[in-house]
Every structure is written in structure tokens, then in C-alpha cells.
Design goal:
The structure is a single chain. By secondary structure, this protein is an alpha+beta fold. About 20% of the residues lie in helices and about 35% in strands. Helix 2 packs parallel to helix 3.
Amino acid sequence: VVEIVEPQLLVLDDARVVQLIGLRFPQFSLHGGVPINTDTIIRETLVQHALGKKIKLKHAGRKTDRYGRHLAFVEIEDHARGGSLQTRLVDLGLAQVDMPIEARGCAPNLLSEEDKARKKGAGFWGRGLFAVRITKDEAVLRGLIGTFQLVEGEVTDAAEARGGVTLTFRGKGKSSFSVIVDARTAKLFKTPALGPARLKGRTIRVRGWLIYRKGPAMQIAYPEQIEILSVDGIEGAQLSK
């Protein structure tokens, strides 16, 4: 690695550009009224852990994007701790897991690291730049439409239609949030017993981009975006085939 262009782009000595996949970084933010340039913090970490190091690329799905950038997990050859550079950034609390669908099989390990980082308040979790939102806070969710978020709450209804499922969460007497699982995505769940139609009454955490569908909502593309929190430790990764 000869250059860090920005948090997700590394330049190699053979002129290849590598984009780190599976991560979501915060943007330039205000914390307590004080501006925090998160890009600088992440870039300094990448300089420390990757600049001048030999790396191995592990592709998942497409190897390159339309700009010719390599889409990959990055392993540092001489990294004492092993694992990917993505794992290190999540462990430090500098990134959240946002896996492309073609690499969703890699999600469980990173989700486990994210959970540890969140619980110990590492990095941006401790600063409040990362947070788990609550489904009942409709006003907060409305203000976050168009952003990547983690949202948690109890499913009050699971309505099936045309092979898909819509999960509803209620606030003060009305729907405050919904999760949309279309028919194609519903087929990816491991068994009907663990599918979205059986989530009524369970507390779950979902991750993805907030959209507006008669209120705050989230479209699910694959099972690993859903983590079940209230049933004997079942993880989102266990819901998939």
C-alpha cells in the first residue's frame, strides 16, 4: 500500500486502487457542538495499519466496480493479530458493518466484532457518532431518513403479502417504523420457522438505509441485516441458508 486516498480507498504500488467492502463510515460530524473530522481519524488509522504494508486481497462477488477499483477484503500479511483490515476498523469502533449482498456470507464475523466494539464503547460508539436507534422514536427516525442506521425494537405485527413480509413496530398507539422484506429476500431465510413472518413479538435489530414509506422504514435485502435479540441467542446469520 503506497497511498491512502480516503477511508475506503487504498492505492497499491502496481497502481491498483482497492475499495474496502463491508463497512460504513460516519461522515464529518458534530459532537457536543464540536466538529469532528471523522475522515481524518480513519485515515490516520489506515496509515498506521496499512501504509507501506504488503496485503492480500480477498474478493467476494464482483472483483471490480465500474471505475476499475478492486472490491475486496484486505488482509495485512505481517499483521500480528491476523484477520482483515475491515475487522480491525470495526474492532476499533471506527466503522459499522454494511455488507454488499454478494459478500453477505462474511457478515457474521464482522457483526460479532461490531457487537463487542459497541458494548465496550470503542471509537465512534463511545463518542455517540454511532448509535442503535429505537423504533418508538419516530421523530428521531424521521430526521434520519436517507442515512444508514441500526434500529431496534419489538415487532408488533408481521403481515404477509405476495410472498413478502412487512414487519410493523408501534410507538404511542400507531405504527412508528416498518421493515419491508420482499418475496425474493424472504426466500433467503433458512426455514419458515425462522423467517420474517415468525418474528411477531420478538425484539430485533435491523441495519440499512432509512427510507420513507408512510413513515420511517427500511428495505431488507438479505437475512443478515436482521438480528434476533430475544430468542435464545439466535443471530441474524443463522436465519440464512
